[in-house]
Amino acid sequence: MSTDDAFAAMYRTHHAAICRYVARRMNLAGDDEVRDVAAEVFTTAWRRRAAVPPEPLPWLYGVARRVLANERRGSVRRQRLADRLFVHALDQVTAPADVDRPVVLDALDRLSAADQEVLALAAWEELGPAQIAVVLRCSRSAASMRLHRARVRLREAMSALDPPPHLPAPSTALAPEVVP
After folding, report:
1. CA distance 94 to 24
2. Cβ atoms of 143 and 130 closer than 8 Å
3. Residues 111 and 71 grouped into a single domain
């Protein structure tokens, strides 16, 4: 039996068991997340197929355990990013006390991936425009403009979700007088 055939047989035999193992440990995770982790387990098994023992299931469980640990660490990093972006977003609004965390996170979710990336580079990585320019492979002025526009869009998204209560109602005092 070729290595490819042996791997395919191992996959067919143990895929369901690995998915069950992962699902039990991910608590309420959706099928997509479980399948993604299982795919990573078998990707690792493929890369290390020469090290797979004759009885592969316990070894695959060990791989799954490490993949899940990496997922948890990634989740913690993502949460730290969200927290840092939250603090950064609060710095961008005029009344931080009036803004709650879910509004900021919802507003961030509504931004484009490019806006999220530039805000993350500024808030989480604490990069300035010159350094962001290097990461994004653009000029410093382009990076500054992207950061500025992302901040503006974040503020707009936040006000669209939960208009700040501290803003005065529109005044008619500036409206032109109508002369009869």
Report:
1. 45
2. yes
3. no
CB 119 within 8 A of CB 85: yes
In this prediction the pTM is 0.50
User: Do 68 and 25 belong to one domain?
Assistant: yes
| DSSP-derived secondary structure for 75-139 | HHHHHHHHHHHHHHHHHHSS-GGG--HHHHHHHHHHS-HHHHHHHHHHHTS---HHHHHHHHTS-
Based on the fold, state whether residues 118 and 154 are members of the same structural domain. yes
- Distance CA(56)–CA(93), nearest Å, equals 55
Task: Please check whether residue 172 lies inside any domain of the structure.
Answer: no
Q: pLDDT per residue over 111-134, tens digit each?
A: 898 898 898 888 877 889 999 998
- The domain in which residue 100 lies consists of 93-161
